[in-house]
Amino acid sequence: MTVADFVVVANRLPVDRVEAPDGGEEWRTSPGGLVAALEPMMRSAHGAWVGWAGQPDVELAPFEIGGIDLIPVPLSAQEVAEYYEGFANDTIWPLYHDVIAPPQFHREWWEAYVTVNRRFAEAAASAAAPDGTVWVHDYQLQLVPQMLRELRPDVTIGYFHHIPFPAHGLYAQLPWRDQVLRGLLGADVIGFQRAQDATYFLTAVRRRLRYEVKGSAVSVPGDDGATRTAIARAFPISIDTAPYLELAARPDVRARAAEIRASLGNPDRILLGVDRLDYTKGIRHRVKAYGELLAEGRLDVENVTFVQVASPSRERVDAYVHLRDEIELAVGRINGDHDTMGHTAIRYLHQGFPREEMVALYLAADVMLVTALRDGMNLVAKEYIATRSDNRGVLVLSEFTGAADELRQAVLVNPHDIEGLKEAIMTAVEMPVKEQSRRMRALRRRVLDNDVAAWSSAFLRALDEVHPH
Ligand code: GDG
Q: What is the rounded CA–CA span in Å between residue 411 and residue 421?
């Protein structure tokens, strides 16, 4: 049995099962920013990661990869449908993203969520060393902090919420609103992306549970009559900048960027969108605005192309199936109306790509369109900025992303306002080089000085202040 001083708990283990050279299967670490941020800590403290391996109905023994102990939590196919696709992705996700899609409330999904959260809490409780630290991640596991505290009152517990926390009027719709607040308050530090998210959470705590709140500190009453303090505040997440800087400087990646431009007919301007195909990302709004600019003759396919990468996501959830149909209908119409033999209006790619190709796309793009209707942070915006070492390029950024709190020199937009979005796209397309570099310089400073390592150390420092060992 693994006993670790530092335990990360997340829905997914940071590994993917891939085909081995001998035709069998092997594990490969998935190159997420979270792994990169936590890796040094995982190695220096004896670290373990608790999570689902991604395959239903498979029981796996703990294993080690790259110096990190991985502790798989099994999920049955029914639990994947009810806890993950159901409660996490069809109840909490839409509710917390301002009900852009209607959240589905089902009691069986909630029961599965409780059962699975308990399984994660038990796995973390057995993995943590006496007086160890456990860092729980994201909306799939909101009950784990309290469940873990009951099992292991000696451990220090952090929780980070990667998505928005909604205003009280929306949060109050959740039939299990009090249980979820109590679940989160099991943590010593509850981290959010933006100050606004922390404020909404603290308002819900005050209004629903009537606990005393002073600044970012909540007095949480215990069974024994004593109270403990939980801190709720913002820790804006970032990216691991080093691999983006390296890839952006690599000659083969730069050559690939030039090749992409050439294969699109070397247009004067390439616009780019990169998103999981998700209704929160505002892909329809950006396609609509762009289509109108073409129809009005303000943009011309002879010299402008829009590349939209929409990587497949949550394909078994109904709302995502409908969204894909809507977007593909809109893209098909615009291309039908405006394509010429040599030029396309929208190059739409419903595919995932390796990171090298993503960086080549970022390098090829003159304008990056991030028009989310609601987004916890949006890392794509930060990745684009990190790759722009020549200080060229323009980021169009929705006000409703966490990133907008930090990236003030972007062209900020309200994506619901289609006329405003069209103006923002034109401003970006026509922006003089001098203005581009003035803005990009400031944006790059912000992103390079505040990378994911700075984020994780700020969070762990706050945890240490509340619960010093
Ligand atoms: C959640 C919150 C918050 C996408 N397609 C491909 C690909 N990606 C990569 C991007 C980026 C990541 O996936 C997406 O991160 P985002 O932040 O943009 O959005 P979510 O997936 O919704 O993430 C969000 C985040 O958690 C972190 O806290 O910022 O608000 O919703 O890194 O580059 N990567 C590759 N191929 C693809 O096709 N290689």
A: 10
User: What are the tens digits of pLDDT across the range 108-167?
Assistant: 999 999 999 999 999 999 999 999 999 999 999 999 999 999 999 999 999 999 999 999
Sorted by sequence, the CB contacts under 8 Å of residue 312 that are 6+ apart come out as: 277, 350, 351, 352
**Which CATH architecture best describes the domain 241-450?**
3-Layer(aba) Sandwich (3.40)
The per-residue pLDDT for 123 is 98
Tens digits of per-residue pLDDT, 15-62? Answer: 888 888 888 888 887 766 677 778 777 877 779 999 999 999 999 999
Pairwise CA distance, residues 7 & 122, whole Å: 12
- Cβ of 162 closer than 6 Å to ligand 1, yes or no, is yes
Ligand 1 neighbour 377 (Cβ under 6 A): yes
- Of 15-24, 303-312, 345-354, the poorest mean pLDDT is in 15-24
Picking from 134, 157, 161, the residue whose alpha carbon sits closest to that of residue 45 is 134
Active-site position among 97, 137, 162, 338? 162
Ligand 1 mutation target, pool 12, 30, 380, most atoms within 8 A of CB:
380
pTM over 0.70: yes
User: Does 163 sit in the ligand 1 pocket, CB within 6 Å?
Assistant: yes
**Quick one: 29 exposed, middle or buried, by C-beta within 10 A (0-12, 13-18, 19+)?**
middle
Residues of the chain with CATH 3.40.50.2000: 4-237+453-466, 241-450
Evaluate whether 182 touches 230 at the Cβ level (below 8 Å).
no
- Going by C-alpha positions, the residue among 374, 419, 163 that lies closest to residue 282 is 374
* Active-site annotation holds for 197: no
Tokens of 219: 């007095």
For domain 4-237+453-466, the question of CATH label 3.40.50.2000 is answered with yes
Name the closest-CA residue to atom 6, ligand 1: 352
Segment 230-243, tens digit of pLDDT = 999 999 999 999 99
